[in-house]
Amino acid sequence: MNTFDLLSEYGHEQVVFWSEPELGYRGIIAIHDSTLGPALGGTRFWNYASDEEALVDVLRLSRGMTYKAAVAGVNLGGGKSVIVGDNRTRDREMIFRAHGRAVESLGGRYYTAEDVGTSVDDMEFVRMETDSVVGIYGGSGDPSPVTAYGTFQGIRACAERRWGSAELAGKHVTVQGLGNVGYHLCALLHDEGARLTVTDIDQDRISRVREDFGAQVVGPDEIYAVDADIYAPCALGATINDDTLKVLKTEIVAGAANNQLDRDEHGDALHKRDILYAPDYVINAGGLINVYGELHDWSSDRSRRKAGDIFRTLLRIFEIAEEHSLPTAEAADRLAEERIHQVRYLSRSFV
Question: Do 176 and 61 share a structural domain?
Fold first, then answer.
């Protein structure tokens, strides 16, 4: 692996490697693009198989945050952090204080928040070392409800596009991943009258959703072949791949997970099969909107209303895709790149 070739491929401005082995901390922070504003992106704590896997993940995730902020219409750049290790560890304070020092070294160019494997409590430890952290107690807190609400509105937009009505009553939705976002999404779908089939690797999460919402349960590898209307991936990424595409039986793919496409060509494959895809960084932007609201002292209602705009944004992306005969993922990229280009031009104009 050539690190500089990877940075060039993804177009990153800066990547920081930070190690404090005596505290059990190994972290990578990636800033992809700060044209629109300071980079923002959560911290993922994961037991990666290799340093290369961790680096590729943080590069992909931070690039996605740039596009997410651009399409969401907020003045933020894209960044992300990963901490390499076992996120089940109970000895967390010093790991996250070390991470806070790494974030602080960037001088306000990057703000972090919780993500997979981290919590609001962890961000409180980060806050001991830097002010460049959001999603803490007394701030916007857990972004999951807003992320789920934006995802729900995105699913409604997909239904509007595919069936001419945003109503979800009677629609069969498969939900993969029942963490905080997945649970809140199931609640919204259940209240709307949708029928749920779910899966997760955590039996406690499965039991909760089954008891609260009457969901049917299938095994983790069985969810793709369920004959349903909508597949909502809400766990880790790359679940749209060569293997799952062979058995996928839904008309819509719309969920909260990041990096849902294993490779870009899988977006083309969905397009060719006439499966409507809600680009992940568009539909799951509610969490970003929530923490952006914290930075600008928005009320929770204002953040939720802004997340509701995902409905209109997706309809616009679907229009662009149809007009130019593009996969929806490519149409979303065009919309994001156009906003970044325009803001960069404005910045040059005032120099």
Answer: no
Question: Do 164 and 20 share a structural domain?
Answer: no
Q: Does residue 319 sit in the same domain as residue 190?
A: yes
**Calpha distance 100→217 (Å, rounded):** 40
Kindly report the CATH number assigned to the domain that includes residue 19.
3.40.50.10860
Task: Tell me the whole-structure pTM to 2 decimals.
Answer: 0.86
With beta carbons less than 8 A apart as the criterion, state whether 166 and 308 touch.
no
Residue 137 lies in a domain: no
Catalytic residues: 80
Distance from C-alpha of 210 to C-alpha of 118, rounded to nearest angstrom: 25
- How many domains is the chain partitioned into structurally? 2
pLDDT digits (tens, 9 = 90+) for 16-73: 999 999 999 999 999 999 999 999 999 999 999 999 999 999 998 999 899 999 999 9
* Range with top average pLDDT, 112-116, 139-143, 181-185, 296-300: 181-185
Backbone angles phi, psi at 15, to 5 degrees: -135, 130
Residue 301 lies inside a defined structural domain of this protein: no
Helix, strand, or coil (residue 142):
coil
Residue 336 has pLDDT above 80, yes or no: yes
Determine the structural domain holding residue 257 and report its residue range: 144-284+311-336
Predicted confidence (pLDDT) per residue in 271-322, tens digit: 999 999 999 999 999 989 988 998 898 988 999 999 999 999 999 999 999 9
Within a domain: 51: yes
**Residue ranges of the alpha helices (H) in the chain?**
3-10, 51-72, 93-104, 120-127, 144-163, 180-192, 203-213, 242-245, 265-272, 280-283, 286-295, 300-308, 310-324, 328-349
Tell me if 275 sits within 8 A of 267, measured CB to CB: no
What is the per-residue DSSP string for 99-122? Answer: HHHHHHTTTTSEEB-B-TT--HHH
Q: Rounded to whole angstroms, how far apart are CA atoms 215 and 270? A: 27
Looking at the DSSP bridge assignments, the partners of residue 172 are 195
The verdict on residue 351 lying in a domain is no
347 confidence band (pLDDT: 50, 70, 90) = low
Same domain, 101 and 170: no
User: Does residue 351 register a pLDDT over 50?
Assistant: no
| pLDDT for 1 | 63
